[in-house]
Amino acid sequence: MANSIASLKRSGFKVVRTVFLDLTYTKGCNITATSLVRQEKFLKKLQTQLDENSEKVLKIMERIRDSLTSDLRIHLSLQVDSVSKVSSALEEPWKAFVPKEKLSTTTIDKVKVNPSLEFITADKPHRRIVIGVGSVESSFLIQAVPCISDFYHKDLPAVMVFIQYMTQLEGPMWKQIRGLGLAYGYSMYVKPEKNLLFYVLTKSSNIRMLIRKAKTLLWVTSMQPVTIEDLKRIGSTYIAPLFDSDKVRTAVCCNPSKVKETANDFKQFGVNLTVLDSLEEDFLSGL
User: Fold this and answer.
1) For this protein, what is any one GO molecular function term (predicted)?
2) Mean pLDDT for each 10-residue chunk of the chain (287 residues)?
């Protein structure tokens, strides 16, 4: 595992994703704790501990295993009517899977799973970052702004339709981005469980022109008369903030020779990027 991280650190998208997650989420949550730079640091430390006292490490692993399985809960969803025609004893395989002494017939409380939006923080000192990676020849970008946090929100269908129209094959963004050869990949999507709207560019040859094109496209589309009135409102309410420097979180990865140029380009759009010299910066690798 530790050896595979070196190749991940040469991937432009893996690096920009790591930076974005770290500038977005609180330190210590699973999202940041499992970043590739922290995992590399952890695995190297673990290897040293194994060499020095493997028995101690094994005991810790056994305690972790016991903790994970001491209150085991299994959720099974299936179409009972169809499956019952094949077998009437649906519970039998699970009796073999779970030790008998750990089976319970009593009703237990549901496990509370905190949505990732609860770990988004506004306290990070850096919200807009650019980093250089020597193996990367093009540029990668992830931008996000707060959006909809409820799957039943009345505006969610309209937001998804707006995004589909903008990003579809032969659509406005396809013609102005992929069609002109400015980037190999682009996407826009909403994640209610994260309360974020994302704009992603991969393998861009001219990120400055891309930002200008995308900003113009989204603003013009949101202001033009459309047949569905909701879409006009959605564009200005949810999509336009992607280019509001006070609201957006931005991570950019490019070749080191392009870092200063990229930072200057974004500055022209009112976005001040903090330059990271490497992935080993304290706020990215600290445990």
Assistant:
1) metal ion binding
2) 83 93 89 88 90 92 83 71 68 70 66 85 79 91 93 88 89 86 90 94 86 69 52 83 88 93 89 85 60
Q: For residues 160 and 214, give the distance between their C-alpha atoms in angstroms, rounded to a whole number.
A: 17
User: Residue type for 27, please?
Assistant: K
Position 226 scores a pLDDT of 43
256, amino acid identity? P
Q: How many angstroms from the chain centroid is the CA of residue 240?
A: 20
Q: How far apart are CA 258 and CA 267, in angstroms?
A: 14
Asked whether the beta carbons of 16 and 273 are under 8 A apart, the reply is no
d(CA 126, CA 129): 7
- Phi first, then psi: what are they for 69, rounded to 5°? -105, -5
Residue type, 197: L
Joined tokens for residue 141: 């970008």
Sign for the pseudo-dihedral over CA of 177, 220, 170, 194: positive
Over the range 65-85, which residues count as b (16 or more CB within 10 Å of their CB) and which as e? eeeeeeeeeeeeeeeeeeeee
CA distances from 171 to 125, 189, 233, 277 (A): 37, 15, 20, 37
Q: Residue 11 and residue 8: Cα distance in Å, rounded?
A: 5
Sheet of 139-146: strand order equals 183-191, 196-204, 139-146, 249-254, 128-132, 274-276
Q: For residue 150, report the phi and psi dihedrals to the nearest 5 degrees.
A: -135, 120
Residue 204 to residues 14, 90, 201: CA-CA distances in angstroms? 15, 52, 7
- Tell me if residue 6 falls in helix, strand or coil: helix
Cα dihedral 31, 141, 194, 71 in deg (nearest 10): -20
pTM to 2 decimal places: 0.79
